[in-house]
Amino acid sequence: AQSVTQPDIHITVSEGASLELRCNYSYGATPYLFWYVQSPGQGLQLLLKYFSGDTLVQGIKGFEAEFKRSQSSFNLRKPSVHWSDAAEYFCAVGTVFGKGTRLHILP
Amino acid sequence: GAVVSQHPSWVICKSGTSVKIECRSLDFQATTMFWYRQFPKQSLMLMATSNEGSKATYEQGVEKDKFLINHASLTLSTLTVTSAHPEDSSFYICSVPGLAGGSLYNEQFFGPGTRLTVL
């Protein structure tokens, strides 16, 4: 069965600092991997996706993620966070979602 | 991508009543829509796949008679919570999958969600 693990429930970083959100998945075949962001009062928005090809994918808002098959990981990164990045982030394999990581930004 | 709306955005009802939630794909014909449930500070759990013109496909453990889904047109799916009870209180979210590649497991376009509170 598919499963997605986001080991960090909360992460706090200072504005301008780099960010990495972890995601591990369990899936028998080539996964369809996604990162979504959920802001209060708004629907989930796709940040980026991986289906095949280049394992480093670029997304919106300056985010990127790297697919590592050997580690079953798809970690999300951003070199410099902005206060507006504070939100809940979900990693997903198809329709299976991780529990989410809430990102807090310190001024 | 598709623009998806939900109505109402929030609803409060008494225990034992039924509540209908609408999900509309505003600019995209959706033969399939997904319905999720999200508990506070928890993940989204897929409840069912809504199929236009046919029966919905429910995930294991989801009561079909409790959560009635109707997908009568290519732009509208409805979720009716029948005889609602306080434990049904939750955040219900619908989504429309993109068609790139033709797979159902492509990126999804989400509605803003409906907060249901059952007293």
Please describe what this structure looks like.
The complex is a heterodimer of chains A (107) and B (119). Chain A is mainly β and 107 residues long. Chain A contains no helices and 12 strands. In chain A, the strands form 3 sheets. In chain A, strands 2, 5, 6, 10, 11 and 12 form a 6-stranded mixed beta sheet that branches. In chain A, strands 3-9-8-7 form a 4-stranded antiparallel beta sheet, with no helix packed on it. In chain A, strands 1-4 form a two-stranded antiparallel sheet. Chain A is globular. The mean pLDDT of chain A is 93. By secondary structure, chain B is mainly β. Chain B has no helices and 11 strands. In chain B, β4 (32-38) and β5 form a beta hairpin. Chain B is globular, with a radius of gyration of 13 Å. The mean pLDDT of chain B is 90. Chain A binds chain B through residues 32, 34, 36, 41-46, 49, 51, 90, 94-100, and chain B through 1, 4, 34, 41-46, 93, 95, 101, 103-113.
